[in-house]
Structure formats: C-alpha cells, structure tokens
Amino acid sequence: MGTRPTPGLQRTTSAGYRLPTTGRPASVSPAARGGPAAGRGPAGGGQAPREAQGVQRDQLWRELVEAEGRGRRRWAENWSFLKDYDPMGNRKEPEKLPDSVPLFSDTLPNSTNQVVGSRVDTPLGRTLIRMDFSFTEGVRKKKLEDELQPA
Known about the structure:
Region (Disordered): 1-57, 84-118
Strand content: under 5%
InterPro entries: C20orf85-like (IPR020339)
Helix content: 25-40%
Oligomer: single chain
Number of helices: 3
Shape: flat
Protein name: Ciliary microtubule inner protein 5
Organism: Ictidomys tridecemlineatus
Structural class: mainly alpha
GO cellular component, one term: cilium
Mean pLDDT: 74
C-alpha cells in the first residue's frame, strides 16, 4: 500500500535522500531526462530551439577537438620518447623509405585513371568465374523446348 504525502513535509528515502514531489522518478538524472544539452538550456528552463541545440553541439564538438589536441600535445611532451624504443628497451632504427615508387604495377592491371583495376583478368580470376558459372548452372534461365514455346 502506498503512502500519501503529508502536506508541508518532504518525502525522503530510508537513506535520507529527498524524493521529488513531481511525477518523475528520482533515479533519472536531469541530463538523462532532457538529453545531453539539458543542463545548458536557456535561463527559462524550457526546451532550447533547434538553432541553439546546433550551436551547443558545435560548441561541444569544438571542446572535444581541443581536448584531444591537448591530450596529443601532453603525450608528445611526456611519452613520445617511447616511440623510438621497442618493448625490450632497445633503440629502434628508423625504417628507410624508398626513393621512388613506380606508378604502374607489374602484377595488377591499371585503369585509364592509373588506379588499380579489377583482378578478373588473372588466372585466379578466370578460375573463379569458371567455377561460378558451373555452380550456378541449375538456377539460370533456360530456353523452353519447342512444344512449350508460345504460338
């Protein structure tokens, strides 16, 4: 059986927490009720217009990017020396990059845009096409016999 609130007294839990007098449960935080920008709404306490929500999201995004940059700079100051050593503590030799890389490939075909094309014209590609053709033979459309052709 429920208890009715006594006028003039606030309801509390057994642990001493005050319960809200509205119909909302106490376990839901204000941020969860109104979304991520609930605490940053206008002074009237109502729902912020769409433009204000976009501005808030943009501000949150800028803060996130700035915090990420700060973290990256802090890592570079404190821990960047680790990138020069392997897990055993031995100094790593930097990998030397090639002087030039050819634009065309000897093993893969090139398209007219000079980007890598498909691999269908290789022996493996021809074998896969032949296997696909033989495995799908039963589900392909077939020409009807003469007696079944429409007149």
